[in-house]
Design a protein that fits this description.
mainly alpha, elongated
């Protein structure tokens, strides 16, 4: 899986509220978009 490009998300996740999970998703979104667009993250 040499082409796998991981997204780093701050942990923990399992104990967060829905609002906190939304914040983590917003934090990760730029990484996801950059990977989709082929940029180095």
């Amino acid at each position: 899986m040499d082409a796998l490009r991981p997204v780093v998300v701050t942990h923990p996740l399992s104990t967060l509220t829905a609002e906190q999970l939304d914040a983590r998703a917003r934090e990760a979104a730029p990484q996801v978009i950059a990977i989709w667009q082929g940029a180095d993250v």
